[in-house]
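Re: that chain you flagged

S.,

Sorry for the slow reply, it's been a week of failed gels. I finally had a moment to sit down with the sequence you sent. For the record, here it is as I used it:
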Amino acid sequence: MGTISPSEQSLRLVSLDDDIQRSLSSLRTNAASNSKARRLVEASLEDGEAHYGLNTGFGVLKNERIAREDVEQLQVNLVRSHAVGVGERVPESISRRMLQLKIHALGLGYSGVSEEVFERLLVMAEKDLIPVVPSRGSLGASGDLAPLAHMALPLIGEGELWLDGKPAPAIDVLALHSLEPVTLHAKDGLALVNGTQFMAGYGCEIILKAQNLAKVADIVAAMDLDACRGSLRPFDERVHVVRPHPGHSVVAANIRALLEGSEILPSHAHCGKVQDPYSLRCVPQVHGASRDAIRHAASVIEQEVNSVTDNPLVFADADGNPDLISAGNFHGQPLALVLDYAAIALAEWASISERRTYLLLDGYDDLPAFLVAESGLQSGFMIPQYTAAALVSENKTLAHPASVDTIPSSKGQEDYVSMGAWGALKCLQIAQNAEQVLAIELLCAAQALDFRRPFKSGIGVEAAHAAVRSQVAFREADKSFTADMAACTALVRSGELVALVEREVVIQ
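Prediction finished late last night. Pasting the structure tokens below so you have them in one place:
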């Protein structure tokens, strides 16, 4: 009875955008690997030795031995005592991903949960029985203890599950599916609450949003460049070859592709303007740096979702005997650092976006002030920029790194923590704020381009303009912006804007 080899593990990797339903078949293949580890756990209970969390207390209580007849109650007590989360609930979609990632990690073959518990987790995924999880309470250190404890409670008939979009008592939802609570066996509770699936679940959501926003940012920047009758010279491929950061070249190529066929560019070819402001001229450098940061964060998060992050880890020695190692794979530091990095990268996309919006409203290159014909009588697009500025300011505060903080817990046993859970929560808020800020820029850019008619922009920019105009009319006079801003935010957030543009041009 040996350990699972790296080659076997690699066959079961999941990606950041895997959905539970699409992953269930692969998750079920992990059951065999988990069974091997389970046999090692059960063998260890018979050797008379102390094994952390199986027949000992937890944390600073590690030296307290637990009687054989109490090991199951120990696991129940662990889940109950650690379910202390507070605050607003984790979105159901992220809780769903947390469940998937927990199943995947346990199934990699180094955790040793009981077959009863592993099978119930698979059934919960298949029937979309998603635990209700409070968002606050994790230090991102011994894993995401509090959130994962709430995720585990429904296994024993406690806590809540989502039912038709609302929280409901888990015991009632289980009954609707003719399911009884399961019994937690040795190590089950510990394996369930140790791990980084809260941070990783949020991280997946953030990266998917960031990958969409990377393209959105380039699209709206290209719209602004033509609306401001800016120069395409700074996007020349040769410029970025001599400073070969990958993101620079990608962004410059995207802008060139989006503006291919523009009638506005040649209309001012000999205007005598020497340079554009940085928010236009340095788009490849600023957008590109954020892209490179997000790429790095994505690689770390994807590595994490394919890792075993509970404790202790279950191995076999050369003779096939249990070799349980209590270590620190639950520590969230790898995620905490890149979530802070991603937060800064996302905040930068929003920050430069707001500056370009300001440029459009400032009457740059003969655009009408505030993008209306009668400014003064009409406030025009003045106040949407205020909203963008407020969100950008909020992002600047939220972008302060969470990972530089640590507060010891458990009488100093857990004396250095990552705070990655808070990093994940605020990073998602920054991403959502960035979506709103870029949507405001999109709304303003479409209005500005209409003042350049009859000249048309590039084919990609025209596709983006048409997407806006399918939802929002040209603004002749003041009225509430609520519906228009919501429509543009939906275009950005849903990925529809990128999809419509990519029907016409290829961007990366």
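What I noticed first: The CA atoms of residues 201 and 255 lie 32 Å apart.

Talk soon,
D.
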